[in-house]
Specification:
VC0467-like; single chain; nine-stranded mixed sheet; alpha+beta
Amino acid sequence: MLEKLKDAHERGPFDGQFLIAMPQLAESDFERTVIYICAHSNEGAMGFIINRAQTVSLPDVLKQLNLVTDETASADDLDDFPVLSGGPVEPGRGFVLHSDDYLSDSSIPVSDDLLLTGTLDVLRSVAKGRGPARAALILGYAGWAPGQLEAEVANNDWLTSPAVEDLVFDCAFDSKYDRALLAMGVRASSLSTNFGHA
């Protein structure tokens, strides 16, 4: 899906933005979520929830994929590597969102500083301690049909703001929603369904 969205348009208005869930999304899959939009075009949009951790660790994933070798970094080095629940679409599909110091033939730029790689090569590099300086493994994604995201933003379902790279990769998941709002100068307690857009 990402390739199709990226080919359709160079940069969409929500590329590289955070979507921050408004209160009316309570009791939905997106309650109190922060989503990093990595592709937006007239073909639709794709992003990743960045404040929900998976129940598995990176060492667990590497074992499941048979990527553990004699060269594998110690579990202590890999335990802090974020593994995220990226969204309800294709939850078994994995992506690595990472800094631009790692590049493979399958890496796709999603912003000036971040790339997305969906192959096992990047995980092999991470396992050997030769991966990108900053990265997160993301399982699943959030997707929108053409015009759907624009309609949801117009309906005040989401606040939008420029993404903060430090928030994308940090592991303090429980406070990430409030910190994303504070980066906009907004407190969660001040949100209502009538709040405007940044």
